[in-house]
Amino acid sequence: MKKTYAGFIFEVLGIISLATWFLAMPCYPQRNKWEYLANRSFTRGKLILSGTSVFILGPNCNLLCLDRESGKKLWECDIVKQVDIPSFMSTPLPVRMMLVQGRSILLIDDGHILCSVDAKTGNKIWSIDIESIFIAAPTVHREQIYVCTGSGVLHQIDLSTGQITKRSIIDIPTPVDDILAVDGEVMFLFGGSCDATGEMDASLLAINISDNTPIWENKLKSASPTATQSEQYLLLLEDGTSLSCLDKRTGKIHWQIREGPQYSHEDMPRGRPILSGNTVFWHSGYGVYACDVQNGAELWSCYAGVVTSMAEVVSSMYVSDEHVYAISLLEILCLDRHTGKPLWNLENDFYDWYPVFGDGVFYGYRGNKISAVIPTPSRKMENRERK
């Protein structure tokens, strides 16, 4: 049928109208940056980012390395076959995994074996039997690995060769549970145990690395403190309920938040405080908090939970220039860094365990699928009800 002039104009106007409507729609970036399907599941595995690579350790000690930008497999290896000590990683899951300066991956089993793997190839560099069970994770400082056993023996190991360069006894009244931080020649250790009445006997100890002499000691009531440090202060979070700012030179408390967070949970995960600029961020139970590092004044607090279940407890957190991401097993909640206002959430459909964050992308796994996900909102929100 022959088109009239008016019909032609109407058709053109319709196309322009449709294009205008399409361009006006909210536009978010592509949600999945990449996905990788492995030949086995990574249930409760450990995922770490370093440089241009993503490393994930599976329950059977298979270590997989992917390109961070494309998701392409770079290498895969079986750690047990590479280590010549039969007892290495005899349990289903290793206790620790730590990446060091992009050069090597330090793996530690459930007892006394430490192994270093080349991050570029997956080949074993060295392995060593400490011959004494250690609880604390290895700490690296000035090309030396520090490992402390439960009996209080501090091992100093050369990072490149795996040779033990020094052994010494730490004079601490309780078994060493963790090396919280190292600053220059000072190491901050935590040790604790329960007495016959069930009371916690715990200590935070600062020692001189060169001769292991104590500098100061503080008594604690916490079973699992975590810490981060600034140039002057050590920020100590005890059981997720008490945040203290200590002078690293003297151990004296500069300020302390003792009353605990507003939105707590009886089974609060062990979160480490994050220091960014002059602000300290931490999470506990269903809550996320921010305070001034100089005086401990609260800047904001936010109830991050949706339902009262363990699945919604905030178990990890990341801070960027403009946002704070509070992560639970159900969702990722994005908060305004400066006000604590909830902006949007990303409902979880890509991770079984807690994801890691870097350069605006979340990396997680579900079963045998590893995903790099750009945090596109599932829904926006003006505010979240606080209880």
Written description of the protein model:
The chain has 387 residues and is mainly beta. The chain folds into 3 domains: 43-94 and 116-128, Thrombin, subunit H (Beta Barrel), CATH 2.40.10.480; 130-222, Thrombin, subunit H, CATH 2.40.10; 261-387, Lipocalin (Beta Barrel), CATH 2.40.128. The protein contains 2 helices and 33 strands. It has helices spanning 5-24, 79-82; strands at residues 32-37, 46-50, 53-57, 62-67, 73-78, 96-100, 104-108, 113-118, 124-129, 139-141, 144-148, 153-158, 164-169, 176-183, 186-194, 200-208, 214-220, 226-229, 233-238, 242-247, 253-257, 274-276, 279-284, 287-292, 298-303, 316-319, 323-327, 331-336, 342-347, 356-358, 361-366, 369-373, 379-380. The protein has a 5-stranded antiparallel β-sheet with strand order 26-27-28-29-33, with no helix packed on it. Strands 1-32-31-30 form a 4-stranded antiparallel β-sheet, with no helix packed on it. Strands 2-3-4-5 form a 4-stranded antiparallel β-sheet. A hairpin with a 5-residue loop joins strand 8 (113-118) and strand 9. It is globular, with a radius of gyration of 25 Å. It starts with a helix and ends in a 7-residue tail after the last strand. The model is unreliable at 12-30, 90-95 and 382-387 (pLDDT under 50).
